[in-house]
Design goal:
The chain is an alpha/beta fold and about 300 residues long. Helices cover about 40% and strands about 15% of the residues. The protein has a single domain (about 10-210, about 255-280), classed as TIM Barrel (Alpha-Beta Barrel).
Amino acid sequence: MQYRPLGRTGLQTSVVSFGAAPLGDMFGPVDDAAGIATVRRALDLGINFFDTSPYYGNGLSEQRLGKALAGRRGEVLIGTKSGRFGDQDFDYRPARIRESLETSLRLLRTDYVDIFQLHDIEFTKLDPVFEDTHAELVQLRAEGKCRFIGMTGYPMQTLRRAVAETELDTVLSYAHYTLLNTRLATELRPLCEQRGTAPINAAAVAVGLLTPAGTRLPNHPAGPAVTAAASRVARYCGERGLDVAFLANQFAIQRSGCPTTVVGTTKTDHLESAVRAASTPLDEPLLAEVLALTADVRDRSWTSGLPENNG
């Protein structure tokens, strides 16, 4: 496992991080023992950053992660979030954020988290988030409830505003450094470097599009053109006996320029594959052919959250 500095935090994070959304049954039921076993396999593989949220199964992900990491707290970095609690349940009021963190700490069996982030901020008015809610994050950090603070979301416009208008240690962007879309590298990462904010990459497989079986989402927000491009890539790789998810992870982990890429799974073989992808050299001719297959939709993003927060 390789480790990289997480911005200016002083933390060293594994280049592959564990995304714990599947531990909350977000993509189908998961056996409790199997989920915990996958977390422990992640530890064996050298993964040291675990990313979760109360949104993932109404706390189930945090509960399982806390159980799996019991006795190993000093070896790991734990990140959780707040503000999004359900598909249509958003509450970024400072008091709710504080209450949420206290609940998360209890479920995670710890008295602090390493990174505390506001979750999917594009679903609310941003000015109050950047003022009152951000001030609460700073206060929680000062109290030692969290070591570092950040925000997460999908639209580039929203994340750029967050980095430019507030003081953040981290920002998490998903599905914006993939074989379909690399806007994270061109639009967000340079600003992060100027501001001293560490960019965290997630969803290298574009929320399931870049997998052999395709996404499990019944109505993927990417739209038909992007979905068709992803299918072309998956088919192209499959015809050559290659795993499109492996290539997607190689590309994201090795080329995004981010300290770490979050990989969400409860399948140990998928986790092991992502770790191998971090160090297996890219086949440059193959990559060029694949990128040519997605050129017609390059950097096309979908709408998420309030219309005014997109762009």
